[in-house]
């Protein structure tokens, strides 16, 4: 028998190294008789497991020695590779496994074949493993080479000492007779601490107290509850901790006595991974559900303004009344702005999730930002007849912030307050200094938020009440943008509500900045209106190109059109435009290529090139600059932004 290693010595188990700490007196050696009992009782030179289909799952050193197959060559192959071609053709391997399934186990002797083609007379015991649902899940095989007589004790000891699974043998009273090194590692006991003691010491309560009753019932009735069944149970380590393990128990007799061998595998890591997989599946299911709801809301939000635009257009087409036409145009403009906001919000979310948002910070007075946000929301506030109270003193509070993004934060909060407050409600917008921070608050008398929903309000696509949310509109991304933009400024946002029907308050906390030393208004030089320009429109959207051409013609500009990149170049060579309104996604030649070629020719070297495109990411703007494009406008364009660029380009 091998001696128990001393402190600091290394022990090699199944190809892994471990070392024992000096945790007390050295345990005594395992007796030769106990080891011989395990050897003679199990007849175990080769120990391996098969899956339910008969493919090899584990392969110990004894199996490798007997068969000549390394584990790397046989794991995953069918056990039929150990039988003769005649036996395989006759279906013998399958019948052996079927017998094991039918009777719980099968024991047989016969010729087996090694890797090199030589044969040996084998004695094998195949025990079926049953899962918790009562279905066969695999087989445990114990095989011995009988052709050469008894093998040396040293070889068999090496087999048992190097298997990765714990192997424990008990007698019919439950007393431990053998405890291999893998079992020592799994349970944290030296073999000498376990041998001669009841195996129930390896079980937590209540199984520990019940175990002797199981043994007694089996001895009295002969009814096996776990023999030949693979199952998951709970083990108890030396330190008192418990862990999940797989247990397969086999029975054998020796000299008229009954013994049981248990093969144990610690499955703690597998259970952890299973739990992680279940958690991730649950998260993905929730994410998928929220995505589906978002897509439904997106379709709803797009259809509403499109329906309004369609109705207004039909009204304009049927009635020439100036008042009706003016009303229709107002509806169309308002709904186009709404669609633009939806798209901008979606793009902002995309940029934020990819870390592409860049803030243009400057020291700003808080009061004008607050006023700008209120004015931007004024149409909705007036439509709902809300009373708005603003408290933000000019020149008293300063922030280092991107003024556009800061106004966007407040506008989103005000839009929420206006939508989720009944008509005629009250909304308060305040700014105050609290220690080193400026705190912006938006409070309303609206529908409120249930306490359990508050933590979720800033999550992507989250909304408080789905039914109301759908009727009020919104994609559920506004508060996500509020939180993300606030955190980009180094601040934080919180939501508070006393519950449904009791209103909501959102608080934005941002680090205050020092008042600028010399504050002066920047005066932009005025531009005199220039003469009409020659404008070339290059866009494959014919309706857009023609409507834009009609508008510019009415404003006095000379306009020509082309509907692809190559036609645009040809038109520029003959027309020599002052301004080129250039789409990027063009057929035959994209807008970037067109711009580069224009800059190389006299016809476009000095022209003002303005991209009018649906591509609005920072990367798209960078590519425009590199191609020689002067301005990059995103569809749908605000003509108030376009007109000054035309007027100064004659």
By DSSP (H or I, 4+ residues per run), the number of helices equals 20
The SS-based structural class is alpha+beta
Overall geometry: elongated
Q: What is the makeup of the main sheet?
A: 5 strands, antiparallel
Mean pLDDT: 79
- Whole-Å distance between the termini? 101 Å
Modified residues (4-aspartylphosphate): 583
Function: Putative oxygen sensor; modulates the activity of FixJ, a transcriptional activator of nitrogen fixation fixK gene. FixL probably acts as a kinase that phosphorylates FixJ.
Protein name: Sensor protein FixL
GO biological process, one term: regulation of DNA-templated transcription
Description:
The protein has 650 residues and is of the alpha+beta class. It has four domains: 10-266, Beta-Lactamase, CATH 3.30.450; 270-353, Helix Hairpins, CATH 1.10.287.130; 362-511, Histidine kinase-like ATPase, C-terminal domain (Heat Shock Protein 90, 2-Layer Sandwich), CATH 3.30.565.10; 534-647, 3-Layer(aba) Sandwich (Rossmann fold), CATH 3.40.50. It is built from 20 helices and 24 strands. The strands form six sheets. The chain has a five-stranded antiparallel sheet with strand order 4-3-7-6-5. It has a five-stranded antiparallel sheet with strand order 9-8-12-11-10. A five-stranded mixed sheet has the order 14-16-17-19-18, covered by helices on one side. Helix 12 runs parallel beside helix 13. It is elongated. The chain starts with 9 loop residues before the first strand and ends with a helix. Its EC number is 2.7.13.3. Residues 106-158, 229-279 form the PAC domain. Residues 1-32 are annotated as: Disordered. One of its GO terms (cellular component) is plasma membrane. Keywords: ATP-binding, Kinase, Membrane, Nucleotide-binding, Phosphoprotein, Transferase, Two-component regulatory system.
């Amino acid at each position: 028998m091998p001696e128990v290693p001393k402190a600091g010595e290394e022990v090699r188990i199944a190809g892994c190294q471990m070392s024992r700490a000096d945790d007390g007196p050295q345990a005594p050696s395992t007796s030769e008789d106990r080891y011989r009992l395990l050897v003679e009782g199990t007849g175990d030179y080769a120990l391996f497991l098969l899956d339910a289909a008969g493919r090899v799952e584990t392969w110990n050193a004894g199996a490798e020695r007997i068969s000549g197959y390394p584990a790397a060559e046989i794991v995953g192959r069918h056990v039929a590779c150990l039988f003769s071609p005649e036996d395989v053709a006759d279906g013998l391997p399958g019948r052996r496994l079927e017998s094991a399934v039918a009777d719980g186990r099968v024991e047989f002797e016969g010729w087996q074949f090694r890797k090199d083609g030589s044969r040996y007379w084998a004695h094998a015991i195949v025990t079926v493993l049953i899962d918790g649902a009562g279905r066969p899940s695999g087989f445990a095989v114990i095989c011995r080479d009988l052709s050469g007589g008894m093998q040396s004790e040293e070889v068999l000891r090496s087999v048992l000492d190097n298997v990765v699974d714990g192997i424990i043998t008990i007698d019919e009273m439950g007393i431990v007779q053998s405890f291999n090194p893998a079992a020592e590692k799994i349970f944290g006991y030296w073999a000498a601490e376990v041998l001669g003691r009841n195996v129930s010491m390896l079980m937590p309560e209540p199984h520990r107290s019940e175990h002797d009753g199981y043994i007694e019932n089996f001895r009295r009735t002969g009814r096996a509850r776990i023999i030949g069944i693979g199952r998951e149970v709970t083990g108890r380590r030396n330190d008192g901790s418990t862990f999940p393990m797989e247990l397969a128990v086999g029975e054998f007799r020796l000299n008229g006595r009954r013994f049981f061998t248990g093969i144990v595998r610690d499955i703690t890591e597998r259970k952890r991974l299973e739990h992680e997989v279940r958690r991730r599946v649950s998260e993905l299911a929730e994410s998928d559900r929220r995505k589906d709801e978002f897509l439904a809301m997106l379709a709803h939000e797009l259809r509403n303004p499109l329906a309004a635009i369609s109705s207004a257009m039909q009204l304009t087409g049927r009635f020439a009344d100036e008042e009706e036409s003016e009303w229709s145009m107002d509806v169309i403009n308002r709904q186009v702005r709404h669609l633009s906001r939806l798209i901008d919000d979606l793009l902002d979310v995309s940029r934020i999730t990819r870390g592409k948002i860049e803030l243009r910070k400057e020291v700003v007075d808080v009061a004008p930002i607050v006023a700008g946000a209120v004015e931007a929301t004024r149409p909705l506030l007036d439509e709902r007849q809300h009373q708005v109270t603003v408290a933000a003193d000019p020149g008293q509070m300063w922030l280092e912030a991107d003024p556009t993004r800061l106004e966007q934060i407040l506008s989103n909060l005000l839009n929420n307050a206006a939508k989720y407050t009944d008509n005629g409600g009250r909304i308060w917008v305040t700014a105050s200094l609290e220690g080193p921070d400026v705190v912006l608050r938006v409070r309303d008398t609206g529908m409120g938020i249930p306490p359990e929903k508050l933590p979720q309000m800033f999550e992507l696509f989250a909304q408080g009440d789905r039914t109301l949310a759908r009727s009020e509109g919104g994609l559920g991304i506004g508060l996500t943008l509020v939180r993300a933009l606030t955190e980009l400024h180094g601040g934080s946002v919180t939501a508070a509500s006393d519950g449904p029907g009791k209103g909501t308050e959102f608080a934005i906390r941002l680090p205050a900045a020092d008042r600028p030393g010399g504050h002066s208004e920047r005066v932009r030089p005025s531009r005199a209106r220039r003469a009409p320009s020659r404008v070339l429109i290059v866009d494959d959207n014919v309706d857009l190109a023609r409507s834009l051409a009609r508008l510019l013609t009415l404003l006095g500009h000379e306009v020509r059109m082309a509907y692809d990149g190559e036609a645009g170049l040809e038109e520029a060579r003959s027309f020599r435009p002052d301004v080129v309104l250039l789409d990027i996604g063009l057929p035959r030649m994209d807008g970037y290529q067109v711009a580069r070629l224009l800059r190389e020719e006299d016809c476009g070297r000095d022209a003002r090139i303005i991209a009018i495109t649906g591509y609005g990411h920072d990367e798209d703007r960078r590519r425009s600059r590199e191609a020689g494009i002067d301005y990059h406008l995103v569809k749908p364009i605000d003509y108030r932004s376009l007109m000054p660029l035309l007027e100064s380009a004659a």
